């Protein structure tokens, strides 16, 4: 059996994600600039993940890529508008980006500054209010804030990936970046 080092596998996944990003950008009418392709390669090389613009900026620096934080923010906002990632707003302007663009909700662990997916179907909503005339409800965002009872316990089984310290586990999906 052939042994492929983790770094080599990661590089191949990044290159594949960059090719998918280039094609997806063209499909939605965004020019496939070097910056967009590099950031798409980093974001979508693995499976599902949550991250902030600062997290992604640190990743670009670690790979030796020189991009300004403003470029990272601008590109992430363009990706969100194109439907490649989903914004998850916490408070005070703090925004996470989620590669899972399907409708789902999140836990927020304040002490660890991370978000965790709540699997679809785990939240039941009662009756929603009627929106004002001329409006429709587009989506419902729910963020449940958590505090740990015991610091050494891990996230409960059956709940989605945590955002920062857990390996990313999801690639380009939902038709936009396949």
UniProtKB/TrEMBL annotation:
Keywords: Cytoplasm, DNA-binding, Metal-binding, Repressor, Transcription, Transcription regulation, Zinc
Region of interest (Disordered), residue spans: 156-178
Keyword Transcription among UniProt keywords: yes
InterPro entries: FUR, WH-like_DNA-bd_sf, WH_DNA-bd_sf
Keyword match Cytoplasm: yes
Biased composition (Basic and acidic residues): 163-178
GO molecular function: DNA-binding transcription factor activity; transcription cis-regulatory region binding; zinc ion binding
GO biological process, any: negative regulation of DNA-templated transcription
CDD domains, alphabetized: Fur_like (cd07153)
A single Gene Ontology CC term: cytoplasm
Signal peptide as annotated in the record: none
NCBIfam families membership: TransRegIrrA
Similarity annotation: Belongs to the Fur family.
Name recorded for this polypeptide: Ferric uptake regulation protein
């Amino acid at each position: 059996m052939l042994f492929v080092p983790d770094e080599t596998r990661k590089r191949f996944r990044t290159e594949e994600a960059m090719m998918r990003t280039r094609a997806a950008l063209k499909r939605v009418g965004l020019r496939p600039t070097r910056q967009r392709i590099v950031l798409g390669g980093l974001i979508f090389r693995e499976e599902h993940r949550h991250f902030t613009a600062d997290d992604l900026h640190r990743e670009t620096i670690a790979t030796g890529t020189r991009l300004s934080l403003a470029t990272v923010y601008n590109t992430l906002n363009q990706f969100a508008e194109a439907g490649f990632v989903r914004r998850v707003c916490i408070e005070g302007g703090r925004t996470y980006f989620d590669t899972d663009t399907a409708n789902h909700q999140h836990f927020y662990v304040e002490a660890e500054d991370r978000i965790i997916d709540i699997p679809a179907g785990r939240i039941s909503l009662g009756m929603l209010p009627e929106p004002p005339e001329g409006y429709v409800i587009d989506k419902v965002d729910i963020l449940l804030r958590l505090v740990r009872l015991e610091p050494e316990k891990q996230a409960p089984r059956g709940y989605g990936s945590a955002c920062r310290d857990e390996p990313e586990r999801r690639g380009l999906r939902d038709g936009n970046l396949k």
